[in-house]
Design goal:
Helix content: 10-25%
Radius of gyration: 17 Å
Order of helices and strands: HHHEEEEEEHHEEEEEE
Shape: globular
Strand order of the largest sheet: 7-8-9-10-11-1-2-3-4-5-6-12
Strand content: 35-45%
Largest sheet: 12 strands, mixed
Structural class: alpha+beta
Number of helices: 5
Distance between the termini: 13 Å
């Protein structure tokens, strides 16, 4: 995952090229109230969030590098289970203190402290709403069919590993899409489906016990 997805998930992302050009100037204006309000509605009272997802990774030219499917379980604060089922199984688990990445086909797991590295990530934008303004500048981007409100988040930390992040929310505060660009120009777009707020989630989902025989790395 460090190789495949953690960078995708823990890096902050970004918008399309047109949004990249528009972002820095627009971000100075501050977010329109409706999109920020939609995000506030999404995180208000949020304890868990579960969804299935499809993920597409493109290079800087737009060429599709990988398409994958899976499911996610999010627990407040900072707990996550991210399962990629196709084409290459991969599991990412955060219990709020450590982040595990497990690649079963490689028989390899990596664990590292969650630490401050988590603070300015796309997932932190959801799980740490009280720190959004601390970590990101925000603005609203147009959406073609007006079916969603698109919030642009640009990390205040110039050393961040991503350039910006987009969150699409319905007016009533349902998260439907996340997109980001890393510092290498790769774009990741994630669409969420069959999502549920505050659905019961077994606490075991946020723990990871490496299978016997798996090599464990602690960078």
């Amino acid at each position: 995952m460090i190789v495949r997805l953690v960078p995708r998930l823990l890096l902050a992302l970004a918008a399309t090229t047109m949004f990249l050009f528009a972002g820095p100037l627009a971000a100075e204006r501050g977010p329109a109230p409706d999109a920020r309000a939609a995000l506030d509605r999404f995180v208000e009272g949020l304890e868990t969030f579960t969804a299935e997802f499809t993920q597409t990774v493109r290079d800087e030219t737009g060429y599709v590098l990988q398409e994958s499917d899976g499911s996610m379980q999010l627990g407040m604060p900072n707990r996550l289970r991210w399962e990629v089922t196709e084409p290459f199984p991969q599991t990412i688990v955060s219990d709020g203190e450590d982040l595990w990445t497990y690649d079963p086909d490689l028989a390899q797991a990596t664990v590292r402290p969650l630490g401050d590295a988590f603070d300015a990530t796309p997932i932190a934008a959801i799980t740490q709403p009280e720190r959004l303004d601390e970590h990101f500048r925000m603005d609203v981007l147009p959406v073609g069919d007006a079916s969603a409100l698109r919030l642009l988040l640009i990390p205040r930390n110039e050393q961040a590993d991503f350039t910006h992040l987009e969150l699409d929310l319905t007016p009533d505060g349902d998260l439907t899409r996340m997109a980001f660009r890393d510092i290498f120009g790769q774009e990741t777009e994630i669409h969420f489906e069959r999502s549920e707020r505050n659905a019961p989630v077994d606490e075991a989902a946020f723990t990871f016990d490496p299978p016997s025989g798996v090599d464990i790395y602690r960078p």
